[in-house]
Specification:
Length: 240
Amino acid sequence: MTIDLLAFGAHPDDAELGAAGTVIRATRTGSRTGVITLTRGEMGTRGDAASRAAEFDAAAIAMGLAHHAMLGLPDGRLTCDAASREAVVRELRSLRPSVVLAPYWEDRHPDHVAASRIVQEAVFLTGLARLDTGQEPHRPGEIVYYMAAWEFEPSFVVDISEHFAQKQAVLRCYASQVYTPGRGTAEPGTLISSEHYWELLAARAAHYGRLIGKAYGEPFRIRGLVEIPDLLAAFGSRTY
């Protein structure tokens, strides 16, 4: 199996919160997409490993993914060590994605920071022929970083206007994590379990959508620059 666009998250729901609209858009246009979570989210404030695994499966179906997997690395203790890098290298060599999505390298949650570095280093290592995993080397074309808690100056914004409602439906699959009417309040609250989180989600998407003249957008950042071979093809149809 090969994947065109492969998103990594530290926990179930990370990639969906930051990039579900973009993943859905790619899926709807015929690309093969996948999401891999490095941990099972077992240290989370709400839910447990079993419920989060079921939610992860449901979200994968809602997004139409060709592949989704949990690597089972230790939640709350992610470290960019050899074992973690090799686990990601094996996935990259197996799935051979063209583009990889990863959490932005600066964030309040240390697992997000560690996951970003693990993926970055694994993407480099996976192209080294002398790193023997019994698989053929592979080098993705680009690592693209999505936004989690901390904002950044984006390199570009993807229009998700047609897919924002679908993104919301995907996030509702994570009923243990997001605000869900009728769910009990026995568990401690978090930012995304707040009733107001849906407003915050829409506000962020609307803000970045406005910057590109669209209703909703998802911001991304890359390291370095990209080539624009044709200015007219890239910018000639912009109307805002």
